[in-house]
Amino acid sequence: MLASRIRPSRCWLASLLFVSALSVAAPFAYVAGGRDVSVIDTASNTIIATVPQAGWGPIAANPAGALTYVASSSGSLFIIDTANNAVIGKVPLENPAIPYGIAIHPDGTRAYVSFYQWDIGDNSVSVIDLTTKTVAATVPLGFSPGGIEVNRAGTRLYVADYDGNAIVVIDAVTYSVLARIASPAGADKVAMNAAGTRLYVTGNNGLSIIDTATNAVVATAGVGGSASAVAVNHAGTRFYVSTYLGGTYPNNDLYSLVIVDAATLDVIANVPVGSLPTAVAIDPTDTRVYVTNYYSNNLSVVDTATNTVVATIPVSAPLGVVVIAGPAAFDLNRRGLTGSWYQPATNGQGVELEVYEDMVASGAGYLQGAWFTYDYKAAGGAASQRWYTFGGSVRTGQSSATVPLYQNVGGSFNALPASSAVQVGSAVLTAADCTHITMAYTFTDGSARSGTITLGRVTPATCSSGSTSASNADFGYSGNWFDSTTSGQGLVLDVNYGDSGPFISSAWYTYAPDGEALGEAGQRWYTGLGFYAPGAGTMPMDLYETTGGLFDKAAPVPSKVSVGTSTLTFTSCSAATLSFNFTRGSSAGASGTINLSRVGPTPAGCRP
């Protein structure tokens, strides 16, 4: 638990911090620009992550929104996992020309990239097999290709021929040319409506609209200038065209997003955007339009209800943008959420969780946790340490759970009497994914405390968005342990794997040796950390006492001191002994052995 980095190492013992990644919201806009990809939370219009060196060029997403693809001018197709916002693959494109457009097959198995470079002449379309991550075919083109689209059946490719003022229709199986459709001068970017019945093509003098059943231009739309990019809303009722209206750079008023009624072709609005717009995308709800502005180094966000720019987000030299829907509600009923959690703003305090997946019934589990923090009134020594416990049901398909908060007082270190839990409030835990949880708390103990804590994992993630995936076989030891003879105190263990190898961290909630008569000032908690050999049933730990903090406050910063050593010996997945020796701190001089039992059922996959 209480640690300074997500990846444990020897220096990890030197400080007491909780480190987290960013909490995220959805949908997300992915913007390729300046060699990096910026991930934008469309609810707050803020950049919540940057995928470094992820390519610079046209960008697209697979139908599920789980992956985005950047056809980079560096010569590779970069594959980004949108769950973790990380590059998970790179496919050499085997083409010296510059990628101009990208489209993804409806089944997500292939990507189509158009290339154009006037001084090389290697103008073509590359077909990338996204399963094998190889170039499956190269389709030579005797013209200067621009944007590219694939029809909803995945049987036809539509490629703009800029110099030839046409749209070329290509069979997506044989790669033979099926038709050439004359279009306005400078056919450039293309977009298809959701029904797949209309293709919209930008040109030097406006827009042409093609009937995909007849391969004929059925209408043209004037937008007051040269159209550079286009997107169609999901309802098919409007299309949005970035347009150059004339004049001299850098007057931003020369560039506009022209909004057109798809039925009447009347211009509904003309919205000024940044300089040299290069791409247009619409969010899944049709409420926002995103325009990349290359010269302005920003992204314009347009509200489709008011037809106004509601945000301008700085992004370096953006070339492409794609908007994906957020993931379905994350599932709290998963064992993999077991582990150590913290908030970086409040160093030296945090939460340990254990989830008993499907313990009640299929689809119904139980979550149990312990919260290690400090008194809210004043910072102090060990007598100001506070710990709370909580627990409640969690269900498959639900990302939130409301749990009661409890406090135990009246116990003594490793001795009777047993203490009882008294409810002092409640908390709502909401998981965004395997590494981000928020905890909204409300106390009913007269302290009037309430707030929200954003938690991230201290230790490596032990779950995936699809299912539990323990990082090592010893992870099964993780969870809540106690001595039944001194109920009301115990340990929460996190057995995991970091850069320095297998490690164990622990949080020990207990009392002062004379804590029975001290009320909440008698509470004590210690943390432990150690490294062990894989498969070993014996795990040594150094013990620490952390004091000087305030409840859910960043200052003052707590201090941590070493107070002793301990050794955990597992005799099975449900029984262990803890030998300990305190050399300083609240329990200085205390030593002995505690017989521990697991709280709750033994998880599947535990090593023994």
How would you characterize the overall build of this protein?
The structure is a single chain. The chain has 608 residues and is mainly β. It folds into 2 domains: 27-324, 7 Propeller (Methylamine Dehydrogenase, Chain H); 335-598, no CATH class. The chain contains no helices and 44 strands. Strand 16 and strand 17 form a beta hairpin. It is elongated, with a radius of gyration of 30 Å. The two termini are 24 Å apart.
What's the rounded overall pLDDT mean?
88
Per CATH, what is the topology of the largest domain? Answer: Methylamine Dehydrogenase, Chain H
- How would a crystallographer describe the biggest sheet? 8 strands, antiparallel, barrel
Strand order of the largest sheet: 29-30-31-32-33-34-35-36
As for the number of domains, it is 2
Gross geometry = elongated
> Mind telling me the C-alpha Rg?
30 Å
- Uncertain runs with pLDDT below 50, 5 residues or more? 1-25, 466-470
Kindly name the structural category.
mainly beta
Quaternary state, please? Answer: single chain
Number of helices: 0
Annotated CATH homologous superfamily of the largest domain:
YVTN repeat-like/Quinoprotein amine dehydrogenase
Quote the distance from N terminus to C terminus: 24 Å
- Helix fraction? under 10%
CATH C-level class of the largest domain: Mainly Beta
Strand content: over 45%
| CATH architectural label of the largest domain | 7 Propeller
E-strand count: 44
